[in-house]
């Protein structure tokens, strides 16, 4: 269980092609962009943009960190357009990184822009169109829409204990949007869940 000192500074390293805006992500979470595998790190954040795919240097960095089992998050950034799809980005990452878990899926406005996340654990919706974000139960049509994704997620989680993320063996993929703050709170919660490095 993390100690109350979970507010302690963490060594956060951000990796990814410039299309994923790693510098903006590093600024948001108090991290440092790196182009080499950082072994003295509390968490590695890999940023991918669905429109650009995942480049070879980023894949090599992921593989280099496999040996030391640093906790890793995959953030899917650049979800502004209708064609940029979180699930597609995760499918690509599953092929070139490791099997990821998707605790949240994106819900869109009618115009295709991301508006909310649905938490697969309990099917609640986090609506980022309100300030602060509000949480409500999902509608029956959403429940049906995410049924298969939820079954797969719950099955993956059955094999993992609570410390799997901190142990560097469970890799959550989180959809984020820096403009309307989608997913930012979730990433902060993952970082805070890690034991402090002091």
Topology:
Layout: E1 12-15, H1 22-29, E2 32-33, E3 43-48, H2 56-66, E4 72-76, H3 86-96, E5 104-108, E6 114-119, E7 124-127, E8 134-137, H4 140-145, H5 147-158, E9 173-175, H6 184-192
Parallel strand pairs: 1-2, 1-3, 3-4, 4-9
Antiparallel strand pairs: 5-6, 6-7, 7-8
Q: How would you characterize this protein structure?
A:
With 198 residues, this protein is of the alpha/beta class. It is 29% helix and 20% strand. It has a 5-stranded parallel sheet, sandwiched between helices. The chain has a 4-stranded antiparallel sheet with strand order 5-6-7-8, with no helix packed on it. A hairpin with a 5-residue loop joins strand 5 (104-108) and strand 6.
| Rg from Cα | 16 Å
Strand order of the largest sheet: 2-1-3-4-9
The biggest sheet amounts to: 5 strands, parallel
Structural class: alpha/beta
β-strand number? 9
Cα shape: globular
Helical content (DSSP H or I, runs of 4+)? 25-40%
Helix tally equals 6
> What string gives the helices and strands in order?
EHEEHEHEEEEHHEH
Distance between the termini: 15 Å
Approximate strand percentage: 15-25%
- Ranges where pLDDT stays below 50 over 5 or more residues in a row are 1-7
Average per-residue pLDDT, rounded, comes to 89
What assembly state would you assign to the polypeptide chains in this entry? single chain
Quick take:
The protein has 198 residues and is α/β, with parallel strands linked by helices. Helix content is 29%, strand content 20%.
